[in-house]
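Re: that chain you flagged

S.,

Sorry for the slow reply, it's been a week of failed gels. I finally had a moment to sit down with the sequence you sent. For the record, here it is as I used it:
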Amino acid sequence: MLICCGLTTLDITQVVHALPGPDEKVVATSQRATFGGPAANAAATAAALGVPVRLVTAIGAGMLAEVVRADVVATGVELIDVTTGGSAVPDGEARGPAVSTVLVTAGTGERAVVSTNATGRPVAAGGERAVSGVFDLVRPGCVGGRERDVLLLDGHHPRLAHALAVRARELGVLVALDGGSWKDGTAELIALCDAVVLSQDFRMPGGDVGRVLEDVAALGPGFVARSRGGAPVEVLDGVVRSYLPVPPTGAVVDTLGAGDVLHGAFAAEVSRGRSWVSALREAVAVASRSVTYEGARGWIGR
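Prediction finished late last night. Pasting the structure tokens below so you have them in one place:
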């Protein structure tokens, strides 16, 4: 089983010919509204690949939250929403999910994103209540032949992520991190991880970008990799450095969520029993296909 923990958002995506400048209005050629967030997209990716997956997140309350919850469940993901009572604002109004506004440039697939992420949004606590039940059906060590249980974190909701990572280590569950960016608590999470897959933009405070894999590995994980768009993926497996080529794709339509797809597919293949490198190679192929369709999940069923 794969367990994903982290952020779920409501994504409002509009496709434009060019990003607007100051005081400029542009007309979108299309729009869509659906759930997003690194952990949520990763979970949906794993479900599409046929891997049982459980998403642990904090969505919130109110009408928009109900829409997001229904959208997530429809992808085949088992949802555990650990939103606490902190989801209400002082006047009693329900606080819904974080909303991401996404502008995708037609022709290049490049995207600009504005989001509050988890800041000031529904609270996900890290206590025993939140952790309880998350690891049901998970047994210590390997499960069923070569299959393994995996916990994938995206670094959001750090108290919850830390609590789940500690419990996962106790149960012998492999822990992987989607290293999208450095956040409060990232160092502590990395120390609990077996594998970390970084984005091209990931930076350690005061670190040398040329040694980012080594610097992250020094915190504990035995496997560290970094995606670099269309360039080969950098890999540090123990002390062995290598590169995984990115297969050529057709015309790039939308890069939104490509990193989430990469992490979800990677964790899904690890849960099937693949080695770190083999799982990442397959995940790179899936993510490369995904950018030729609209949205993070447009490739599903194609």
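What I noticed first: Residues 86-94 have pLDDT under 50 and may be disordered.

Talk soon,
D.
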